[in-house]
Amino acid sequence: MKQFLALTLTLILAVCLSQCGTGRAVSSSQNNTAGNNGLTGTALDSTKGLKDYFANDFTIGVAVSPRALKTDEASLILKHFGSMTPENAMKMGPIHPRENEYFWRDADSIAAFAKANGLKLRGHTLCWHNQAPRWMFVNEKGDTVSKAVLLQRLKDHITTVVSRYKGTIYAWDVVNEAISDRGDEYLRNSPWYRICGEEFIAKAFEYAHAADPNAILFYNDYNEINPVKREKIYKLVKGLKDAGIPIHGVGLQAHWAINEPSAEELENTLSKFSSLGVQVQITELDISVYNKEHNSRERRAEDTVTAFTAEKQAKQIEMYKRIFSAFEKYKKSISGVTFWNISDRSSWLDNFPVRGRKDYPLLFDRNLQPKQAFWEVVKTAGR
User: Fold this and answer.
1) Distance of CA 302 to the CA centre of its chain
2) Is 43 in a helix, a strand, or coil?
3) Rounded to 5, what percent of the chain is helix, strand, coil?
4) Distances (CA, A) of 98 to 58, 102, 149, 180
5) Catalytic annotation, residues
6) CA 210/CA 191 separation, integer angstroms
7) Please, are residues 114 and 121 in contact by the beta-carbon 8 Å criterion?
């Protein structure tokens, strides 16, 4: 009996030590084991994917690269996601590098994967100031083109790309990040705006609608929880809608972090955009395990501490619970939630705001296993 009691006490102590430590890196197995305990409200089923838990609420999507579809991440995509967004392959620069040259291979491979596996596909993005090829804005002499020339080039680009994927892509981010981050400025001072004025935005939607009348067309932007920028995004979308421009949705990128958005910021944001009467989609979701920084910067000494600690995990879990509970509240307006990247194996946040600082912003770890945050998220489904 004494030996039995001693063994029992030893086991209890071992469990306590393994679960009560702070500041240590969290392993994949710890994520899995912790995640399977204590599920209430939503029945745990290891055969179900993330998309299945939210099947009656909104589509769950993910941003992908052509390379990822050839790795073990492909099976994770098929199990857990019902929609894909090309991370870079359909942006203007990569797909249309020169005026009379299109590069279709990468975009076509993603479209083919989606079609073969019955996945929805979002197009991203038709008009953006970033990753736009220089030739779009200048003539053969290098001089800035006229408004008429630039709008014709935009029309040709949109018509060609949208027509190619008509029937495969169900929704497009038509215009991306046209709103200025400066508080005293409405639209970003991009080449599109400097040459065409505000008109390029409405024209982009008209061109896309003409090329595919059945596609759902979105305006997409970031920093949507900021009250000043939120009002400007709202003003733009409402103005287009009221003018009869074929805009059907607003995309909130949702590049958030463990310290934002607050519950109030999130509520105000979702309430505001839901009132527009268009579809709302969360288009680029990730939750950084570092406090939010909005601009890139040089590396500091503290940036070498990158372990995914129990403290970081706990804060990330709480934020994921907060935002998915809010998504459920507004699910009559929200038609899709897309994660930006597949797993913690690779994220754009590994190089932003600090180049080479590892982040862990997603629901799957580097071994493609569900993190504890995954199980907390699925508990919010159907509420």
Assistant:
1) 27
2) coil
3) 40, 15, 40
4) 38, 7, 15, 28
5) 177, 284
6) 24
7) yes
Indicate the CATH number of 30-291+306-378 among 3.20.20.80, 2.10.260.10, 3.40.430.10, 3.40.1000.70.
3.20.20.80
Residue pair 258/315 in contact (Cβ under 8 Å)? The answer is yes
- Please name the residue that has the structure tokens 């996601």: 81
Enumerate residues 6+ apart whose C-beta is below 8 A from 133: 92, 93, 96, 97, 98
3-state secondary structure of 35: helix
Task: Decide: residue 125, CB within 10 A, 0-12 exposed, 13-18 middle, 19+ buried.
Answer: buried
How does DSSP assign 220-267, residue by residue?
A: EES-TTSHHHHHHHHHHHHHHHHTT----EEEE--EEETTBS-HHHHH
Reported as a single tens digit per residue, the pLDDT across 21-70 is: 344 566 544 454 444 444 444 556 778 999 999 999 999 999 999 999 99
Please indicate, yes or no, whether the overall pTM of this predicted structure exceeds 0.85. Answer: yes
